[in-house]
Amino acid sequence: MNIFVLSCRDPWATLIMNGKKTGETRLQSFMTQCRPGQTIAIHLAYNNPEEKEATQMLISSGVEEEYCTKPQAMIDFRDPGSGVMGCAGCIIGLVDVVETLHFTNPSAEEVIAWQAKALCDVTGRWVTRLANPRWLRRPIPMRGAPALWSCTLPLDCLPPPS
To answer: Which InterPro entries is this protein grouped with (predicted)?
Structure first.
């Protein structure tokens, strides 16, 4: 299955996969390549913050730690190439794109509503609303890339149909 992929650092990638972060913000417009209803993959970037920094990011965003849990298959995963435990540097799930908007001059109400989805400031950014997160059956080790990139996912990794 050929698919677009978006790399995100943790804790943001895990928050997306747990449905807590339903808006993804970027300074560039590359997410406009995705049409509404299109499924994309989420890649957990290898360059993740230290645990203490991640905890501070969560607290500052008002997120509880329970929203940062991963399925056991993701926690137990050992990259066959490096032997490293965990799923950093792997594609971990699928989400559907709802819409992508550019917030150049948003109203106060729009800012409040979208910041609750994105868990960060949206002013001057491109915001993509995401829905229907599904964890893969197992993580797929893959080198990430900036912006939106594509890859082919093995069919045996795809989540069961809902």
So the answer is: EOLA1/EOLA2, PUA-like_sf
